[in-house]
Design brief:
Elements lengths: L1 H12 L11 E9 L10 E5 L6 E6 L5 E7 L2 E8 L6 E7 L5 E9 L25 E4 L12 H5 L5 E4 L2 E4 L5 E5 L2 E2 L19 E7 L13 E7 L6 E13 L18 E14 L2 E25 L4 E26 L2 E23 L6 E25 L6 E22 L4 E25 L2 E21 L12 E19 L3 E18 L9 E19 L2 E12 L3 H4 L4 E4 L2 E4 L7 E14 L2 E13 L2 E6 L7 E7 L3 E15 L2 E14 L2 E5 L5 E5 L2 E16 L3 E10 L2 E3 L2 E3 L2 E12 L4 E8 L7 E7 L2 E7 L5 E9 L1
Parallel strand pairs: 1-7, 11-14, 29-33
Antiparallel strand pairs: 1-4, 2-3, 2-5, 5-6, 8-13, 9-10, 11-12, 13-14, 15-16, 15-46, 16-17, 17-18, 17-45, 18-19, 19-20, 20-21, 21-22, 22-23, 23-24, 24-25, 25-26, 26-27, 27-30, 28-29, 30-31, 31-34, 32-33, 34-35, 35-38, 36-37, 38-39, 39-42, 40-41, 41-44, 42-43, 43-46, 44-45
């Protein structure tokens, strides 16, 4: 209770700013008489430009003397307030880029109609980079070369984003927090990106990439935040959109199977119908977004060679044919009983079914002797249900609001694996069954108060998360599976947090300073019969500051300096104690003694813009303590590899990023994004405890890497567009090793038909079939070299219609 009282007290002292919106700035204030202080109704309020005295907006005050001017473009203006018999009031006014609401306070009019003053105005050009340079905003429907695929696929050619092992990386770092509609959700994972490849891009309105989050966001995720916004229409009456896309992948075999296994998936079908409906009338707005995704894919096709210190060599292939079916629906209702209050109830449901069929043969060096063949079947179903209740109260001052929300998420993971182990001496069968039910409840309260030169915001959050998990093993003949490592484990997480921020802005500078204070209490209860691990957990109370200072020498140039402190808490699957096959001789195991890693980030950014383009550059440095990484070890007398997460010590990530946008001609525009960074991990020594204590020591690792992305867009006659995208990823560090360079090219074409209501597209990803993953990993007693020829080339066609 002392901690909670401390956090609540901190909330009252720490006001916070949120991100600027894209709908313009709303100005408000009150007009009073200078002498008697009485409010003045029906006063004329006009906003004009300075250069040509052009009218921008105007209104008259209400009976309470209040005025509101909405949708004002960022810049410097002259505000004129006039009333017969009174001196006209004029003042300089900056509508900035950091807050959508400005409170001009009380304006007093004096009796004397002869005094005039002047003010200036400047306009600011908007593009994909938010004006405060903290995030980029993208619309999946504009990504023609990736249309018809998943959210994960749509993100692969976005500036600043790369992929590795199905995970999103920002600036060479996979510690990314993924939100849905501004909130964490079990569909994307609380701290991971486990299901982004199964969210249809057709369901998404926009994607926000936030490199420098403010204190309003959870402190988790040192690489940054990706916020996925679902579609929601607000037009009056009944309207909607239907769509259908289909495609084929793996049109030919890139590398033939090793002898004696079932064929790789070929000509894999992709089907994605979608439906969006909205009905708005009077005080009610109802909405529905529904998608179904059927996807066959050659999910993995990795050829590897393991070289042991004793000179023995094993050649193997991991082939995984996958069929995924995902149904997703989001629906809800908005009710506005009056102008000051809004209630929203919404729900999201998703069912994801994964069926894997795979083979893993093991041979000697010249492929003359097969020592074993593993065939496996996976049957996994995931259910997610999320319910949200939101209440917003708008005070009479525009932008002065109180938001309260409650969100509840239930996520079930029902997973079954069946393995057949065929050797010259015997045939054995192994299987296991896992059931995990995740329940998360979040309560949020946010208070926003506009100011004359900025904004205050403060709030609190309370989270309770509970994940009971049960694992059952059914070992067959000569199995290496450990039946004593099964049983149950319960994960419990409680997080109260408060945040606050203050922002100040004038013509030349912007200052933002915030603080988030979190108390985290994690308990991990383990089956007392477990042969290695016992119950464990951790707790901390810690502040996470964020600061930004910007200098604007003129209308087209801006320099910004950022600092923030972040944390990456281990996800439940990272500490899950049950061993699980990555492949027959590679097992991954969680580590309940894993602890959070803490990161401090400094960044200097510069943006300049001109009539037809812009340039953004940034230099950054991150220092991380207790770095989380997965360590692979073997135990004496065995060839089995155990992958276990550990805290490896201090690491560093620093680099440069550049984004260049240019509209070269009326029919051609392009974007170039380039990143150069260096990842360094200090020398460390850890102990993998499962199945027996094994010590691993690594020397200091350091590698400079980077990537370049080019996106070009051609506008042709007859409302036709072509998009061309190419990506180059330089070699990079992975746990205990390196990954080689990668290269791919995408192409898409789209045409608007039926008077703009209809749209057709065709596209292809990795059209030259060049993308493959090559790795080299060094463990204690072995070296693993591998190349994955998984499915990367997919051709799609689609149609959509608005009504």
């Amino acid at each position: 209770m002392r901690i909670i009282r401390y956090l609540l007290f901190t909330a009252l002292l720490c006001p916070l700013l949120t991100f600027a919106q894209d709908t313009g700035v709303t100005l408000s204030g009150i007009i009073r008489e200078a002498n008697g202080q009485a409010t003045m109704p029906f006063v004329n309020v006009v906003l004009k430009t300075q250069t040509d005295n052009r009218f921008i907006a105007g209104t008259v005050t209400t009976e309470e003397g209040r005025f509101i001017l909405k949708g004002i473009t960022s810049g410097n203006y002259r505000l004129e307030v006039s009333y017969v018999g009174y001196i006209q009031h004029q003042q300089e006014l900056l509508a900035g880029t950091l807050t959508p609401f400005l409170d001009l306070g009380t304006i007093h009019l004096k009796e004397d109609p002869k005094i005039l003053n002047e003010v200036k105005i400047t306009s600011v050009r908007a593009d994909g980079l938010a004006a405060q340079m903290d995030k980029r905003i993208f619309t999946p429907s504009d990504n023609i070369s990736r249309a018809g695929g998943s959210v994960l696929q749509a993100m692969q050619n976005l500036p600043g984003v790369t992929m590795q092992d199905g995970k999103i990386m920002l600036r060479g770092n996979d510690k990314v927090a993924v939100l849905i509609d501004g909130r964490q959700n079990a569909i994307t994972g609380f701290g991971s990106q486990t299901a982004l490849d199964n969210i249809p891009a057709s369901a998404i309105e926009r994607i926000e990439i936030i490199n420098n989050p403010t204190a309003k966001h959870d402190a988790n995720g040192n690489a940054g935040i990706i916020n996925i916004i679902y579609k929601k229409n607000n037009q009056d009456g009944f309207n909607g959109k239907i769509g259908l896309s289909t495609g084929l992948g793996a049109l030919w075999v890139r590398k033939e199977n090793l002898p004696g296994i079932s064929p790789q998936y070929q000509a894999t079908p992709k089907i994605n119908p979608s439906l969006s409906l909205n009905y708005r009338k009077n005080k009610l707005n109802t909405f529905l977004q529904a998608d179904w995704l059927y996807n066959q894919t050659l999910n993995r096709n990795e050829f590897a060679e393991r070289i042991y210190d004793d000179g023995s060599i094993i050649k193997q292939q991991v082939k995984r044919n996958r069929t995924t079916t995902v149904a997703t629906a989001k629906t809800g209702i908005d009710w506005n009983p009056d102008e000051q209050n809004t209630f929203t109830l919404s729900g999201l449901f998703s069912r994801e079914k994964i069926a894997d069929l795979g083979d893993i043969p093991y041979f000697n060096q010249d492929l003359s002797i097969r020592s074993r063949l593993w065939s496996f079947v996976e049957d996994e179903v995931k259910y997610t249900a999320t319910a949200s209740a939101i209440y917003q109260h708008k005070f009479k001052q525009p932008g002065h609001v109180l938001n309260t929300s409650f969100n509840y998420t239930f996520h079930r993971e029902d997973e079954k694996y069946f393995f057949t182990n065929i050797t010259p001496a015997f045939t054995g069968t192994d299987s296991y069954k896992l059931l995990s039910d995740e329940q998360v409840a979040d309560l949020n309260v946010d208070y926003i108060k506009p100011l004359k030169h900025g904004r205050l915001e403060t709030g609190l959050k309370l989270r309770h998360r509970y994940i009971p998990t049960n694992m059952e093993f059914f070992p067959g003949a000569n199995s290496v599976i450990d039946p004593n490592a099964g049983g149950w484990a319960n994960y419990k997480e409680t997080i109260p947090a408060v945040y606050g921020n203050y922002i100040y802005e004038n013509k030349s500078i912007e200052v933002e300073a915030g603080l988030r204070v979190e108390y985290v209490n994690v308990k991990y209860e383990v089956n007392p019969d477990h042969n290695t691990y016992q119950s464990d957990g951790y707790n901390y109370a810690r502040p996470f500051p964020n600061v930004r200072f910007s200098w604007k020498p003129d209308d087209r140039n801006k320099f910004s300096l950022f600092y923030n402190g972040r944390v990456d808490r281990p996800n439940e699957v990272d500490i899950r104690i049950f061993p699980k096959y990555d492949e027959p001789e590679v097992l991954k195991v969680g580590n309940p003694s894993l602890r959070p890693q803490f990161t401090n980030t400094f960044e200097l950014g510069y943006k300049t813009s001109w009539t037809a383009g812009s340039l953004y550059t940034a230099a950054y440095h991150k220092t991380t303590d207790a770095t989380i990484t997965r360590i692979a070890t073997i135990v004496p007398g065995s060839t089995l590899i155990y992958n276990i997460f550990q805290n490896a010590g201090r690491s560093y990530n620093y680099g440069l990023e550049m984004n260049f946008d240019q509209k070269a001609t009326p029919w051609f525009s392009f974007n170039v994004n380039a990143a150069l960074y260096k990842n360094t991990l200090n020398a460390f020594t850890i102990e993998n405890r499962y199945p027996v204590p094994t010590v691993f020591t690594a020397a200091r690792q350091s590698l400079t890497s980077g990537n370049v992305k080019f996106n070009g867009r051609f506008k042709l006659p007859a409302q036709t567009e072509i998009q061309f995208s190419t990506i180059y990823l330089a070699p990079d560090l992975i746990p205990q090793g390196r990954i080689a360079s990668r290269f791919s090219t995408d192409l898409g074409i789209r045409r608007h038909i039926q008077k703009g209501k209809g749209e057709i597209f065709m596209n292809g990803t990795d059209i030259f079939n060049t993308l493959r993953i090559q790795r080299s990993v060094t463990g204690n007693g072995f070296i693993l070299n591998s190349t994955d020829f998984y499915e990367t080339q997919v051709f799609r066609i689609g149609y959509s219609y608005k009504f």
